[in-house]
């Protein structure tokens, strides 16, 4: 992953990108905010006129005074209403921009090469797509609203003050650098507490995710209490750290800002006093003083608002830069895909050498020929490279040496869409989505009709158990849905793979965790595909591939033996024969007594 903490301000570009389609809205919003600030700046000037022209000289012209008061009210109401309307508009822009960003991040993650997911931590990825983009939402609201609005109000008030008396305005303007200095000092002092809270928060999330994922193991090992205590400890630490942070805020930041405010008021009043002494001043100064005091309040409060947001703003910036780092992950997969679709599914592996770390190959010079429509089994000890070989066939990785061809053309040249259309996979851990059986089989692929779904279920020998479910094909599965057994899940996964009418079907230890009866169903389904679909199946359970046209026996990443079950069994002292004998012994040992 790219370094997330590098120049967080660069992430502003990311926000601009996501908000680009709404630029007219943003410009309109900023203009309206400008108008609101202008209206707001009018208030004290009207007040000054009220004092200077009516109250002090004792000129009680009720019509004019009433009009002035009404104008003050109208102006302040119009300013508030305009700002409220703009807040809603900005919130809308923020929501839509975050939606756009989230979709972009998710689409990007889906397109990343498998090698990326080897290094990525799932919890962190989920957090990038959800929490971090949500933090970006905060950023929009703060940048777009609080920052923009407050800066406009401050600028408007300073401009009005300059119009009234530019020298006094300059005194007030010193507030801005003074505040920057205070904030910088505060940030330096509170940085350790802020960093600690952030770290503890991510620890809490990580612990929570870990316990949820491993709940069965955790409960079975009687570790629930220990985990609870550990969680409590981290939670308690987080609370203390957060209190320390808030304390620093309450004891350092706010008092310093308030002190600054008081100093400023004293200076301005003192400035008025000096002018009183040095020149002919009159009652008019009272109105001016009133206007200035009003403006100071209008400058101080937004500035405090801006400063109070800084901590959150920083966090949101870090989140945005993490999202940006993820978006910068390379989607590139290799050579141009200018090949043809897969018509037959004949596979050929030539001198295939591959290592996740190129310096340490896990497959060494594998040569295999799998004619179209053949059934090919792959066996070997654990860690011998079976799944790795399958990953290369699925194009999750690219081999460092050698090549894979399909129907005579390089596998890498087949366009993505054509590849997905032609290839089906039944993984070891079947994955069900929270949807109906029908949707789980069709998986949203266009052109898969209900009839095709049922035909696939028949072919996968899954139809009988599906129709026995409470709502048949409309029964909901996955989280919150009906519970089905591992074997049934596997049959649905098989139906899903077959519904795509694949030319090539890969099975990754699809029969390892299922009972013999279901294994037999899978076996029947595979036999029925013979001659029509090329099947490549990794099997721990050797009975699954007994009928294969050829069995590849891998040993430490090398192809040690190859042939049909009968040929390999005839090979005295051969690896396959030993594996079969070992498995038979295991089966005998684990069979119930007398069974
Ligand atoms: N994503 C990965 N990153 C780095 N090394 C890996 C990765 N996956 C597997 N390996 C390593 O590659 C070697 C072959 O593993 P592979 O999973 O292909 O074996 P296998 O024969 O499928 O084993 P099993 O029967 O246990 O599934 C092992 O040494 C393993 O540690």
UniProtKB/TrEMBL annotation:
SUPFAM superfamilies: ABC transporter transmembrane region, P-loop containing nucleoside triphosphate hydrolases
Location in or out of the cell: Cell membrane
Membrane topology note: Multi-pass membrane protein
Transmembrane intervals: 29-47, 68-85, 143-162, 168-186, 251-273
InterPro entries: AAA+_ATPase, ABC1_TM_dom, ABC1_TM_sf, ABC_transporter-like_ATP-bd, P-loop_NTPase, Type_1_exporter
Superkingdom of source: Bacteria
Major location category of this protein: membrane
Span of domain ABC transporter: 347-581
Keywords from the UniProt entry: ATP-binding, Cell membrane, Membrane, Nucleotide-binding, Transmembrane, Transmembrane helix
Domain ABC transmembrane type-1: start-end pairs: 29-315
Keyword Glycosyltransferase: no
Gene Ontology molecular function, alphabetical: ATP binding
Name of the protein in question: ABC transporter ATP-binding protein/permease
Origin organism lineage: Bacteria, Pseudomonadati, Pseudomonadota, Betaproteobacteria, Burkholderiales
């Amino acid at each position: 992953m790219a370094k997330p903490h590098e120049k967080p301000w660069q992430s502003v570009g990311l926000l601009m990108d996501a908000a680009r389609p709404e630029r007219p809205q943003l410009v309109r919003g900023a203009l309206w905010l400008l108008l609101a600030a202008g209206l707001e700046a009018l208030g004290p000037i009207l007040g000054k006129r009220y004092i200077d022209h009516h109250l002090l000289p004792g000129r009680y012209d009720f019509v004019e005074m009433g009009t002035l008061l009404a104008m003050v009210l109208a102006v302040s109401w119009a300013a508030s209403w305009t700002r409220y309307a703009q807040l809603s508009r900005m919130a809308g822009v923020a929501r839509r921009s975050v939606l756009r960003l989230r979709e972009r991040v998710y689409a990007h993650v889906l397109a990343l090469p498998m090698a990326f997911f080897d290094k990525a931590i799932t919890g962190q990825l989920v957090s990038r797509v959800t929490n971090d983009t949500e933090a970006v939402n905060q950023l929009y609201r703060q940048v777009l609203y609080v920052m923009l609005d407050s800066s406009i109000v401050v600028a408007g008030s300073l401009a009005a003050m300059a119009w009234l008396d530019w020298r006094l305005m300059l005194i007030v303007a010193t507030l801005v650098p003074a505040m920057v200095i205070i904030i910088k000092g505060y940030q330096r002092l509170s940085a350790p507490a802020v960093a600690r809270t952030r770290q503890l928060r991510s620890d809490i999330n990580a612990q929570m995710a870990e316990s949820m994922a491993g709940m069965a193991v955790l409960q079975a090992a009687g570790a629930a209490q220990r985990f609870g205590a550990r969680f409590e400890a981290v939670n308690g630490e987080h609370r203390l750290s957060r209190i320390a942070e808030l304390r620093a805020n309450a004891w350092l930041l706010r008092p310093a800002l308030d002190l600054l405010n008081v100093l400023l008021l004293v200076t301005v009043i003192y400035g008025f006093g000096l002018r009183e002494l040095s020149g002919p001043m009159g009652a008019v100064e009272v109105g001016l003083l009133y206007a200035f005091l009003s403006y100071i309040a209008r400058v101080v409060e937004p500035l405090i608002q801006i400063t109070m947001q800084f901590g959150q703003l920083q966090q949101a910036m870090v989140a945005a830069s993490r999202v940006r780092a993820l978006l910068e992950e390379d989607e590139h997969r290799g050579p141009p895909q200018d090949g043809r679709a897969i018509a037959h599914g004949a596979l050929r592996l030539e001198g295939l050498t591959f290592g996740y770390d190129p310096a340490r190959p896990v497959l060494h010079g594998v040569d295999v020929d799998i004619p179209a429509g053949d059934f090919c089994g792959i066996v070997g000890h654990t860690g011998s490279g079976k799944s790795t070989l399958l990953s290369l066939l699925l194009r999750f990785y690219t081999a460092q040496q050698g090549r894979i061809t399909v129907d005579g053309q390089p596998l890498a040249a087949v366009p993505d869409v054509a590849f997905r259309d032609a290839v089906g996979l039944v993984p070891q851990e079947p994955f069900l989505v929270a949807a109906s059986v029908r949707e789980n089989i069709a998986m949203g692929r266009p052109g898969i009709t209900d009839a095709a779904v049922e035909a696939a279920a028949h072919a996968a020998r899954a139809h009988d158990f599906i129709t026995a479910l409470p709502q048949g094909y409309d029964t909901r599965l996955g989280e919150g849905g009906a519970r089905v057994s591992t074997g049934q899940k596997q049959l649905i996964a098989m139906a899903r793979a077959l519904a795509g009418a694949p030319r090539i079907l890969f099975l990754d230890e699809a029969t390892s965790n299922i009972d013999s009866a279901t294994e037999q169903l899978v076996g029947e389904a595979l036999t029925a595909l013979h001659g029509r679909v090329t099947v490549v199946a990794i099997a721990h359970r050797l009975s699954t591939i007994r009928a294969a046209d050829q069995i590849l026996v891998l040993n430490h990443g090398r192809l040690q033996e190859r042939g049909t079950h009968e040929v390999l069994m005839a090979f005295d002292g051969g690896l396959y024969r030993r594996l079969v004998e070992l498995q038979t012994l295991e089966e005998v040992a684990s069979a119930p007594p007398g069974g």
